[in-house]
Write a structure and sequence with these properties.
mainly alpha; about 70% helix; 13 helices; single chain; disordered N terminus
């Protein structure tokens, strides 16, 4: 517990120092620019805090510490994701965080890590698959993108993940569906592709799917959308 408190103080102190040294950016700009600067220092090896301390900060009891840690960890995933490879297991757990910003951070990092270190992410595949049904909207999007990255890394994952992809496309809400169709289908080949495409095509006949969304999905599939009843003569 003492270590967590010490890490919290250091994260807050580092944030304050960086913010005070910045040339007065606007409030909306300060968090992201500060996080980018802190991440750059970590990558360069000149930071006050380690990668491990920032990752542990994601689960800190103080929300301000967790939020700042999330910003820095996301920047690390963008700048040098290899640094987060030793912390994949913790990020898998944090994908289920009750704090949306922390879950978003994990959802941002895991797909990137699945591209640069697919074997290490795949070690947690059963846990990730088992968490899909009960995952939040943020977490599900991160899971889909993580699974897509694994399939792009190796075709061996396709058959293991096709049921998840089918369920994702079948139950995706209108906001999620076009993006998932766009990501999932190009990552699959052969029978898994045909299965996922079949589910996507079935969604076009869903009366609850808004017309603009259905048109976007039809465009992605390269098919002509049937005229709506109101458009028929």
């Amino acid at each position: 517990m003492a270590q967590r408190s010490e890490a919290s103080s250091e994260v807050e102190a580092t944030t304050t120092t960086t913010a005070s040294a910045s040339p007065s950016p606007s409030p909306s700009q300060r968090p992201s620019s500060s996080a980018a600067a802190l991440a750059s220092e970590v990558v360069a090896g000149t930071a006050q805090l380690s990668v491990d301390q920032y990752v542990r900060g994601l689960a800190d009891v103080k929300e301000s510490v967790a939020l700042q840690a999330a910003r820095v960890v996301e920047e690390l995933a963008t700048q040098k994701p290899e640094l987060l490879a030793p912390h994949i297991e913790r990020l898998v757990v944090l994908l289920g965080s009750e704090r949306p910003r922390v879950a978003q951070c994990a959802a941002h990092c895991l797909p990137i890590l699945a591209r640069v270190a697919p074997a290490k992410v795949a070690k947690h595949l059963k846990v990730l698959q088992g968490s899909f049904d009960s995952a939040s909207e943020i977490a599900k999007d991160g899971l889909v993108r993580t699974f897509v990255a694994l399939c792009l890394a190796s075709v061996t994952y396709q058959k293991r993940l096709i049921e998840i992809f089918e369920a994702a496309l079948r139950h995706a809400d209108p906001k999620q569906l076009p993006g998932w169709v766009e990501h999932i289908l190009p990552a699959l080949k052969g029978e898994p592709y045909a299965q996922a495409r079949g589910v996507a095509e079935q969604r076009l006949s869903d009366p609850g799917l808004p017309r603009p969304v259905a048109q976007r999905v039809a465009d992605l599939l390269g098919v002509k959308l049937r005229a709506a009843p109101s458009e028929r003569k």
